[in-house]
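Good morning C.,

I know you're traveling, so I'll keep this short. The sequence:
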Amino acid sequence: MEQLFTPHVGLMVWTVAAFLVLVGVLAKFGWGPVLKGLDEREENLRKTRAAADEARRVAEDLRRDYDERLARADAQAKGLLTEAEARARAFKDDLVKAAQAENEKMIAAARAKLVEEERRLARELRAEMAELSLKSTEKMLRRELGKADQDRLVKEALADFETWTAGK
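The tokens, ready to paste straight into the viewer:
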């Protein structure tokens, strides 16, 4: 076992020489591509992170813009709805006022027509009564009437009046 711990100069020289050759070969051919690959990977990570940050920023800008547009559209819709409700109320009020005015005109016209018809009927009734009175008086004057004749004439006048009013 002692031989393991005893230094052999020749073996050490060859081990160091092999190590230096290996380091030289790796430095010449392997180290550059490894560093280049690491640099490329780091650059790709940087670009990916920058693209992700840019995409996040664009998405946030779009979301903010969307929220603003949505708020404006909501406010505009509420304004239009309020305006439409006000117009509808005004239109309804105008219709009610117009209908009331038309109704009042129709009632006034009907009342005026009723008053005129009442006056016309009163004139006709007076004229008919006057005519009946004249006829009765004429009949009485043509002859001397007794109590029975007077009762009969009054009954005839009343019957004529009832016939006349029934015909109207």
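Safe travels,
E.
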